[in-house]
Each structure stands twice: as C-alpha cells, then as structure tokens.
Amino acid sequence: MKHLFIFTCCLFLGCNQPKETIISTDKGKIEGSFNIDKTVRIFKGIPFAAPPVGDLRWKAPQPATAWDGILPCTEFGPNPIQNTPEPFYCWTEEFIAKSEPINEDCLYLNVWTTAKSENEKQPVIVWIYGGGFTSGSANCDIYDGEELAKKGVVFVSINYRVGVLGFMAHPELSKESGNDASGNYGFMDQIAALNWVQKNIDIFGGDPNNVTIAGQSAGAFSVNTLIASPLAENLFHKAILQSGGLLGSNRAQPLADAEATGMRFMEKADASSIKELRQLPAEELQNISNDSEIGSVGITKDDYVVPEDLMAHFKNGKQHQIPIIAGWVTGDGDFLGGNEMTIEEYKEEAIAKYGDKAASFLSIFNADTNEDVKKIKSKLGMLNFAGVTSHLLAEFSTQPSYLYQFGHAPPEKQDFPNYGAFHTSEVPYALHTLHTWNRDWQPSDEKIEDALSSYWVNFAKTGNPNGDNLPIWKTYNKQSGHIMVIEDNVLGSKEGFLKKELDFLSHL
Known about the structure:
By secondary structure, this protein is of the alpha/beta class.
C-alpha cells in the first residue's frame, strides 16, 4: 500500500531535483516531475485522505497523516477495489482504468500545472471519472491532464471509492454514522478531495476561488450530486456534466431500499455485523458483490449527502447556483440496450406508460416502422439519460447554462466494429487527449478536439465557453432552447433543437 510506506520511503528524496518539482502541501513536502519539454509540472498519487481500511472502511474519509521528508509523487496511486478492468463493447483499453495496482487504499489525486509560482491563480478543473459507480480510476489514458494544463488551467484528477466499498448502505452503518445515513462514501471522498483543493491548490498556482468540477457518465451523476449536496457548499464555482445527471432519472434510491441491499449483502457474506464485514478481505467483498441476487449499490437519497427529495430541492433553488455546461452523446441511448421492439409493442408501451399523454408522446416521438422504433428508442434513451437532466438543471438555475449534443463519430478502427459516436467518446476531444487513443485521426477530429477543449478551458476561466474565435455557443433557456450541436466538421448553436422532446419528457 502506497500510503502505508510513506514513512520509510520519503527520507529526503529529490535533493538533486529542480526545486520547482518539490512543494509543500498542508501534510508535508511532495516531489513531482516535469513533462518531456519541462513546461508542465506533474504530481501523481498525492494522498488527500487516510486509507479507508480496517475500522475506516464504510466511514467518511478521514484526514491524511502528515509525513516527514519528501513524498515521491511521480506515479498514480492504486485504483479503488473493483473487478479487474478490461476493455469491453466499444470501450478500448484507452478508456479503461489500468488493471494494476488495485487496492482499498486508493484515496489519491493528481495535479498538472504550468504555473511557475503560487501567485498565478490559474483556474482549476477537477475531473471525476465515470464507471457506473462500480469501476473506474483517475489512472486512465484519456484522463491525462497535460494538454489542458498547457491551455492554462490547473488540472486535477481524483480517485474515489466505488462498488460495495464506496456505496453500500446498511442500518448498522446508518446508526453508527451520527447522521442516520449510510452509503455515498464515494461522494464523501469527492468532497474530501475538493476540500484538499481548497487548502492546497494555490501552492500549484491554482485559484481556490475558481474551481470547476467536471465528469462523464457516473462522473456527471457525481457532479449533479455535488451541485445538490449541502456538504459541498463553497467548494466549487462551475460545473460540467458529460452524459449523466440525477434530475428526471431513477438512479438515486431511498435510504431504506439501499439499506435492504446492504442487509442482503451481509447475509451473502455470512456475517452478522459490520464489524465482521470489516474483517473480511476487500477482494472477497468485491467477489460477493457480483452476486446478482443482492442487487446493485449506487446513489442513495440519504438526506445527508444527497437530499431526499431531489426535484423539490432544485425547484426551491436550494442547489448551488453556478454556471453549467451539460450535454450528451448521440450514442448514449445505445449502450443501455432495449431498443429492439416492434411498432405495435412500441405503441402499447406508450399507452401503458403515458396514459392520456400517449397521443402527444407518439406525435412527438413518431415511428412508422420497426426500424423507426429502434432509432426513436435510442433517442429516448439518450434524452432520458442526460438530456432531461440538462434541461432541468438549466430550468432551475439562476446562472448561465450551456447545453450540447455530441454526434461526431471517431475514425474507424481496423477489424473493430463501428460504434459511431458512442457513450463517453467525446471525453478525449474535451480533454485534448486524442493522442492517447489509437485511431487514425483526421483534421476534422483535431479541429473538434481543439474547439471542444477550448470551450471547456474558457468556461473554467470565466463561466462562459466563448472566445478564441470559436463558433458562438449561446446560453440555453426553456424558451429559445439553444443547443450546441457538434457533428462531423460542424459546430453550431441551434435554436429550438429538441425543444418539443425535452419539454415533454421533462414535465411528465
């Protein structure tokens, strides 16, 4: 475990290293490294909390222990406990966390900065990975922060607990918490990382008063959670949600339901108490969690980290009111499945689901053939996954909102199926990391990569993505419905784009 041998491997290392790569955090000195051309300082594997092991398993993250000497921070910390990461479906190895190391001791973060002094006050982007809350890591090729750092932001990527160790609730855990709540430990990790940023990012030349949180898929759901959570107040100032969000979705469950899942887990583990579960190896717990009879863990409306009534929370303006970018990829609806259906089945489903609104639904989402149904179901999956949330976030916000749809398909890979613009495929464009993805990139790809990453950086700087002679991205509101559409060789803000569809789905 990296954290556990800090005291034996940090004895005055780096005495011959450039002083720019040795800095003092609130817990001690760390030593980073430079990129190849020495324009970016890189610090990897910085502990932002104590290892969540032993008695700290299934507890809120605790402060990291201070160290003596200089802690080497040139390698990523371990990935959180999860099944062995491996490519699947459309996600090649560039999109997958490294298979090693994996360890329960996983609460580390990483920083890329071009700032030469702590006085520069560069804007900060904190990246939160996806993975369905069951997998993922900051140690992933497409999350490299070097290129965005070169564009003038301090880029931070963080780890958080996933799966049963990050999100299991249980009545015993709720009782011992002091808050009558349990689960959501992964979100508490994210909040702990943001607190670390507030205390330390100025040392890296970052501005703690100009922090943007960003993430894709489960990372976007995380961003939405942080926007809602009272525990994250004043920890960030802007947000970017890429394909995911809570509003209008069913991905957050009541505490009682989450606790019931935890009780089934304890029974499967043949344990009679949380104390016994804390004594089992983390890998064993992970294997038990794969039993489909237990049910899945994830976001819990515990009324502590996550408000119990999310919609009322936002309608009443209790969320953190900040500028947002939110959007989706046209393939978001395909990876969810369930698109194969006859025209008759589609109409029957509409009547059963929408009742007296079925006629309106079928008028807006019209299908005349089975092939039409497949396309419409994919579109519905896309909008319900991220479009509705984006629309509602903008509707309930007093701050500017910018919405997008990404439909640019990357070049085909030899001897590999063509998945088009698939879920999360916009991430390397936005983070300017196409160079980490093994495809035959074309000028059109590089154009979109430069534009999208510039939008993200501009937004982090000012709360407005526009500038640098980019196509104008207009703010979104319910009336005009401007959405930035990113397709092959085309970036443009379209008025009223998907307006009928989003209006209907958002107010059922």
